[in-house]
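User: Predict the structure for this protein chain, please.
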Amino acid sequence: MPANDLEVGHKQGLALRHHDPVEIGIIPTIYLSVVVAAELAIKAGKGRIILPKPVEKWIEEAARRHHLTLLHLELGPAATAGGLPWIHSDPFDRILIATAQRLLLTMITADETIARYPGIKSLW
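Assistant: Here is the predicted structure, written as structure tokens:
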């Protein structure tokens, strides 16, 4: 499955088409966790997605093009991810969940399991 702009599939192959917020006159703060780089690199390494360039470059360009703010991994959420209830077993998703809980962020995801965590709002 080729990855184009923000059309990278999640586990079920779903994709997010993003309208440029500048075009519609609203510029919300949308964060893209750098943890996604590891997830994409693993999927690319397994041949599940094809990126037109190295993951780091692709994410930097996508973030710039779509006005996304890169959210760097911090020690707090990384350390607390292991203490979350075992509703979800994916370590990357657990780090994203812990980050969203700590920063009170809404997660954009097709993964319905994530919304079962306390304090998590999700949107898809």
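The chain has two domains: 1-66, 73-124.
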